[in-house]
Amino acid sequence: MKTSKLYSLFVLLLAAVLVVTACGESNNSGGTSSNTTPKVENLPAALAEKGDIKIKVIRKIGGDDHTAQFLAGAKQEGESLGFKVDTFSANGDTLKFHDALEQAANEDLDAVIVSHGDDATTVELVKKLREKGIEVVAFDSVEELEQVDGVTSTSQNDQSLAQMALDHLVQETGGEAKILYLWVDGFPAMVRRNQVYQEVLAANPGIVELDRYGVANDNTSVDTQNAVATLLNKYPEGELDAIFATWDAFAIGAHRALVEAGRTEVKIFGIDVSNPDLEAIQAENSPWVSTAAVDPKLIGSVTVRLAAKKLAGEETPVTYSLDASLIKQEDLTSAAETVKMDDLNAIIPGWGTSDAFLEDWMKELKEANK
Amino acid sequence: MTAKVSKKGINWFDFLYKYGTLITIVILIVFFGVATDNFLTSNNITSILRSISITTIIAIGLTLSLAVGGFDLSVGSTASLANAVVISMFVWHSQNMLVSILVVLVLCALVGIINGFLVTSFKIQDMLMTLATMFVIQGVAQTYTRGATISQNMIMPSGDYAPGSIPALFGQLGKAPWIIIIMFVAVILVHLLLTHTKYGRYMYMIGGNSEAAKLSGIPVRKYRFIAYVLAALFAGIGGMILAARVMTAEVNAGAPYLMDAVAAAFIGFSVLGSGKPNAFGTFVGAVLIGILSNGLIMMSVPYFAMDIVKGAVLALALGITYYKRKH
Fold it and tell me: Which residues are the signal sequence here (chain A) (predicted)?
C-alpha cells in the first residue's frame, strides 16, 4: 500500500518535471513557466508584486449578444494574461448593478471594469472602489467618471457610428428619403448618436423624418416589431423609403416587421452587430443593408488591457474611444459562406484587431500563459 | 320621484356595466379611423390581432387560474421558460418540432403541477405563492440559458457555433394567419370549457365561494390543481408562439406579458356584465389594449404616454366592475 502511494507520487513528480522542461524548451525567449505565476522578463515590477490578479467585470445591461461578446472578450483577454476574471451582468436592473459595485469594494479585487454605469450613484460607488485602491476602467458610462482620479472611460465612437450609418443612408438614397427614426432618449450613447442625426438632417433637407419610435425595456425588439408593423400600415408602399435604427434591438424588430409585412423595399440602416444581426442581414431579400459597429469582443479586450496597464503602474488616458467600421450587406453576401462574428475580420478591414495598449510585456505574458 | 331617479341611475350603470368596454372599443375604432388614414385597413387589423395574440394566450391561462379564485403570477416566467426551452431544443439539441414542443408542454405541465401542489397544500394566498414560483421559474430559465440570448448560430461556451436551426414550419406558427388562428382556438376552447361544461361551472363555483363548493361535494382541490396546470400550459403555448414570432430566446422575454395579461383579464371582468373572469372578456380586454397601442402609435403619441392611457382604461374597467358589485 505504502509503496504504491510512493510510486504514484514519483510518477506525478516525473510528469511535472517533464511538463516544465517541455515548456522551457518551447519558448526560450519568454523564460520558463512554472504552474503558478509565469515569469516574464519585462513584467512591470508593480504588477509582479501584486501576485495573482483578480478582475471583475460588472455590466448593467445584459441578455443581449453584445453583452455576451463583450464579457467573452474581457474574460479571454484577461485569462490570456494569466488574470482571474469574473463577469457579472445586472440584466438592466439598476439596484442589482449598484449592489454588485458595492460588493466589489469589499472583495479582494485588483481591478473592476464597469460597463454602462449611467447614473450619479455609479460615480459614488466608483469613488469608493478607488479609495480601496481598486483600479477602474469604465465603458459607455456617465461622463462624470472622467473626473474621478485614475479612472479611464472608454466608449464606442458614437460620433463615427452614427455618421457612418447615416452617410450610407444618404449615399444609398441620393439624399432624398422619407424615413422612420428608431431612437430612445436617456442613454449617453443615444444622446451622442442623436446629435449626429440632427446634424445630418440639417445638412440634407431631402431626408425627412416621418415618424419616430423607441423604447428600452425587456421586450424592446418585439415592441419595436409591433410598432413598425403599425407604422408600415400608416405609410403604405411608396411613402416610406428607409429606417434609421440607432440600436440593433431596434433594427432586429424593424427587420422582422418588414419581412412579416412583405415590405422589404424599405431599407434599414443600423448600428451595432451580433450573430443574430449578421444572420438577419444575410437572409434572402433582407431589407437590412448596413450596420455600423465596433467589435464588442475587442471592447472587452481593450478595457482589460487598460486595467492591466493601470495595475502595472503605467500611464493611461482619461478617455479612449474605439473606432467604428461599416458592415455592408453586399460585402457579406459576396463572401462564399455565411459570415459570422468571427469571420468579420476577413471581410471588414481592421475588424476586431487593435493593438491599442497592447504592450510588449503583455505579449510576452500571453506567450508565457499559453 | 327620488326612487324613479335612482332607478334610472341604476339602469344607466347597468347598461354601462354591460356594454361599457365594448362601447369604448367602438368609440376608439371610430376615433382612430377618422383621425388616421390607415387605421381601418385589413393590413392594420391583422397587425393588431397579431400583436395581441401572445398576450391573449397567456391571459387565457391567467383567466383559468382566476376562475377558481386563484391568481397565477408565474405565467410570464413560464412563458419565458417555454420560449427558452423550445428555441434551445432546436438550436442546441437539433431536435425536431414534435419532440421540442412535447418537451416544452411536459415541462410546463410540471410547472403547473408544482404551482398547483403549492397553492392547494398550504394556506398561503395564491398570489404570494405564485409570486415565489415566478422568481424560481424565472431563475431556472435564466440559469438554463446562462443569462444570454439563444439564437441560431450562437456561440456555445465551448467556443463552437450552435449546431441546430429552427424549422421554417415552426416560424410559420408565429406569422399571420396561424398566430391569430391559434389565439382564437385558445379563446374558444376555454370559453366553451368555462361556460358550457360542468367543469367550468364547478370552477366558477369554487371561485365564487370555495367553502360552499366544498360543502356541495365539488373536489375543490382537484379543480384548483387542474386550473393551475392549464394556466401553465397556456403560458407555455404563449411562450412558444413568442419564440416562433421572434425566432430567438431573449432573457425574460415572457415577463413583460404578465402585466398586459393581468390587465386584459381584469378588463374582461366588465365585459357584458359578467363580473367574473371569462375567456371572451379577456380577449376583448386584449383587443382594447391592442387597439390603444396601435392607434396611439399611428397618431405618433410617444410610447411613455401610452402607459398612462393603458392604466387609465384599466382603472375605468375596474371602477365599473366593482361599483356594480357594491351597489
Answer: 1-22
